[in-house]
């Protein structure tokens, strides 16, 4: 087997004319790298192609991929990219893409490499004619769990008004319940505390139980504000309080977990095994309570992500408390294949990447992926057309 070509396209996110914002970032101009890895294997007269993308919430990595990583992979000795069975080895492709890169300072290259590495998993599953979660489970000695608990992530700020419309927020959350979700997440930190707490109360009232509502500050607060918010949120009995401070400020995270009895969630912006190691050493994370949200699409792909899970388990944490950030099909298959606690979903934002394909069955807060080979990206409305144009 040989890789004969790799193509990448930066794709703008479609927000239906409304640019969502969290406490720090407006996503109106954000893009995602869509990558196709073309091989000399053929099915039905067409080459078998692995497709993936980096994660949502940062930017496309066209320059890093075009100038550094794709040429390294295409110029490699073909046999150097194969595993013992003769198939493309995701870990070998990742190592090749990162050749001559210094350690540390992970940043955007972690997402660029992830898009390439994840495309290898899509390819492997397509060659095995099975959904990616089955390939992932077999490769890592797991029993796949195709029914994955999911929650709907939304509650962004719109239209330049940080307070936003509470009525519109209620309508949004009712819409997620109508779709079959039984838990939701909303943004905080983009409005004065009084206004944001009114938004939180409105969502709890709409959903019916604080335990079904998570809040996300997206790293907005310093230590003083993060702990003040912890005190303000404590009476609501929330599902979790997410990323109160800068993702690398482990002392801030520890201060929050020391004063907040509810669950704290973090990790989506950690890009490497050393980052996660430092989180569990110094961040005050509590087993059987706090949530880890590392995202393979932001952290060198599935190879590195599995090593992150190994770190968690070595330090006494349960992988059922891992809920990958990202809200899309790739992470749905990863959660199913690795037996994680669940997965985020973006049913209303970040199209065409957010959310799942129409064939994915949503029932009482769980989603079952389809049996389409690979990640099933070709079944996702809007994304399918982009993939056809790409290859």
Automatic annotation (TrEMBL):
GO terms for molecular function: D(-)-tartrate dehydratase activity; metal ion binding. Keywords: Magnesium, Metal-binding. Mg(2+) binds at residues 216, 242, 268. The active site is at 187 (acceptor), 325 (proton donor/acceptor). Binds 1 Mg(2+) ion per subunit. Its cofactor is Mg(2+). Transmembrane segments: none annotated. The keyword Transferase does not apply. InterPro entries: D-tartrate_dehydratase (IPR034611), DgoD-like (IPR034593), Enolase-like_C_sf (IPR036849), Enolase-like_N (IPR029017), Enolase_C-like (IPR029065), Mandelate_racemase_C (IPR013342). Residues 166-263 form the Mandelate racemase/muconate lactonizing enzyme C-terminal domain. The keyword Glycosyltransferase does not apply. This is Mandelate racemase. It comes from Mycobacterium intermedium.
């Amino acid at each position: 087997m040989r890789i004969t070509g790799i193509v990448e396209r930066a794709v703008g996110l479609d927000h239906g004319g409304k640019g969502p914002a969290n406490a720090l970032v407006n996503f109106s101009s954000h893009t995602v790298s869509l990558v196709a890895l073309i091989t000399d294997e053929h099915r039905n007269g067409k080459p078998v192609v692995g497709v993936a993308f980096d994660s949502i919430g940062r930017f496309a990595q066209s320059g890093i991929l075009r100038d550094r990583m794709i040429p390294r992979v295409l110029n490699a000795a073909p046999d150097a990219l194969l595993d013992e069975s003769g198939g493309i080895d995701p870990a070998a492709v990742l190592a090749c893409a990162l050749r001559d890169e210094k350690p540390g300072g992970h940043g955007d290259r972690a997402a660029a490499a992830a898009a390439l590495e994840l495309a290898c998993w899509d390819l492997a599953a397509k060659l095995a004619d099975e959904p990616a979660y089955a390939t992932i489970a077999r490769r890592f000695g797991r029993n796949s769990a195709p029914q994955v608990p999911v929650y709907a992530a939304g509650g962004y700020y719109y239209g330049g008004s940080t307070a936003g419309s509470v009525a519109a927020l209620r309508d949004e959350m009712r819409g997620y319940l109508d779709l079959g979700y039984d838990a939701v997440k909303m943004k905080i930190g983009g409005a004065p505390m009084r206004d944001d707490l009114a938004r939180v109360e409105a969502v709890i009232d709409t959903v019916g139980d604080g335990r079904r509502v998570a809040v996300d500050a997206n790293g907005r607060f310093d230590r003083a504000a993060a702990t003040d918010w912890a005190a303000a949120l404590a009476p609501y009995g929330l599902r979790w309080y997410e990323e109160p401070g800068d993702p690398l400020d482990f002392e801030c995270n520890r201060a929050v977990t020391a004063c907040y009895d509810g669950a704290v969630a973090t990790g989506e912006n950690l890009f490497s095994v050393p980052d996660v190691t430092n989180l569990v050493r110094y961040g005050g994370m509590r087993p059987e309570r706090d949530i880890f949200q590392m995202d393979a699409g932001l952290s060198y792909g599935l190879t590195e992500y599995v090593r992150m899970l190994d770190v968690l388990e070595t330090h006494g944490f349960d992988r059922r408390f891992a809920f990958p950030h990202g809200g899309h099909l790739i992470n749905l298959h990863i959660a199913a294949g690795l037996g994680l606690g669940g997965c985020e979903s973006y049913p209303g934002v970040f199209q065409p990447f957010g959310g799942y394909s129409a064939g994915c069955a949503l029932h009482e807060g769980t989603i079952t992926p389809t049996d389409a080979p690979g990640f099933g990206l070709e079944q996702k409305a809007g994304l399918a057309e982009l993939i056809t144009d790409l290859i």
